[in-house]
Amino acid sequence: MYFAHSGGGGLYSVSIVGARAVCVRNSNMLFNSVSKINAGIVSSCIVGFALSYYAYIVETSKEHDSSYEAMCDISEHISCTKAFMSEYGKGFGIIPENSPFYFPNSIYGLVFFVNFALLSVSNTLAATTMLLILGVLANMGSVYLAVILYKLQDICVVCISTYLVNAANLTLAVRKFNLLSEGSPKKRKAN
């Protein structure tokens, strides 16, 4: 038997009445939920990319003009330039200056947010697991850099905003992983 139905879950068709109808509807709801999470991750990455780009502009402007004052430099202890220009502003303070990977931290942010966004559009469990791993690493980096800010006795609005973006990305990646895990064939067979 074949029929089409337009209900609260959207338009879907069913070839066999019964369990198949529930499966198709759940699959449609899963796709909608995952799509919303993907949109959240991409949006969050756009914000992270913009913050990283701004950090790069501030750092390079300050390097070329020592009198440059960024909008995020509010006071002596609320200054993004202080953080960006510190010894920890390039290579996270752990990569040697003579290394080919000695870049401003903002460059790492730009690359990270582009790759995180690109990876998020894949709805495979493997890609989502990679998102989780990258999200955890980014948040570990955020904690490390937050400790550095504390050592510098500085509040960097751009840095803290980036930490919040990393936390949001990890939260969304966990939600996506849980949704995809629940919808996987192995999980459905176990129920």
UniProtKB/TrEMBL annotation:
GO terms for molecular function: quinone binding; vitamin-K-epoxide reductase (warfarin-sensitive) activity. Gene3D superfamilies: VKOR domain (1.20.1440.130). It is found in: Endoplasmic reticulum membrane. GO terms for biological process: vitamin K metabolic process. The chain crosses the membrane at residues 37-57, 101-119, 131-150. The keyword Ribosomal protein does not apply. The keyword Oxidoreductase applies. Its main location: endoplasmic reticulum. Pfam families: VKOR (PF07884). Its EC number is 1.17.4.4. Residues 34-177 form the Vitamin K epoxide reductase domain. It is a multi-pass membrane protein. One of its GO terms (cellular component) is endoplasmic reticulum membrane. It is an enzyme of class 1 (oxidoreductase). Keywords: Disulfide bond, Endoplasmic reticulum, Membrane, Oxidoreductase, Quinone, Redox-active center, Transmembrane, Transmembrane helix. Belongs to the VKOR family. This is vitamin-K-epoxide reductase (warfarin-sensitive). The lineage of its organism: Eukaryota, Metazoa, Ecdysozoa, Arthropoda, Hexapoda.
